[in-house]
């Protein structure tokens, strides 16, 4: 039987877990961050893609998460940093090959989040047929607001989702506009990977994505869910 390890056994001190505050107290420890690509028809059109495509997924590292309204630095290697406001799903129960009818049983709660994107790197990667990792999974690329438990707010499937930059509205959509519902997304994703408590899923963005610069203040609001705020420094 293997012996248990202590901090002294590690070459360096293990990194502290990443966590997101939960409304009315407690912390949600983040395991993995999955993202759904192209889940609002108008955004698909504005990016020049086909609305008939099935859902696909990419990831960000857990430590890309930023909470508490903290500022984020303008990342290196880009001159075209874009905002994307998204509904965030917090998974609270393990499962694989989850049936759509049971998918919402695996949801702990919801939050508003931002999928920050180095759009010029993404465009170059698409053109070359290469992965998007450096366009999406960079440091501090996922500001996320407080998680509201589903036990308190239910499972929102409609309601305005908006983003302002310096008080001027940039993005507006409705959760009802999602091509793939939260339940459908969970069912599909869990066929590829086993979802675990602590995983979060960012569910795509409505139309209106655009560039931000140093000094900009971003605030996203999802009706019935909450808000996310950050600034670029």
SSE ordering: EEEHEEEEEEHHEEHEEHEEEE
Summed up, the helix count is 5
CATH superfamily: Fumarylacetoacetase-like, C-terminal domain
The average pLDDT value, as a whole number, equals 93
CATH class reads Alpha Beta
Oligomerization: single chain
How many whole angstroms does the radius of gyration measure? 18 Å
Helix and strand composition category? alpha+beta
- Strand percentage lies at 25-35%
Q: How are the strands of the biggest sheet laid out side by side?
A: 4-3-14-7-8-11
Please bin the fraction of helical residues.
10-25%
Terminus-to-terminus distance: 50 Å
Query: Overall 3D geometry?
Result: globular
CATH topology, anyone? Fumarylacetoacetate hydrolase, domain 2
- CATH architectural name: Alpha-Beta Complex
Detail the poorly predicted runs.
none
What about the largest sheet?
Answer: 6 strands, mixed
How many beta-strand segments?
A: 17
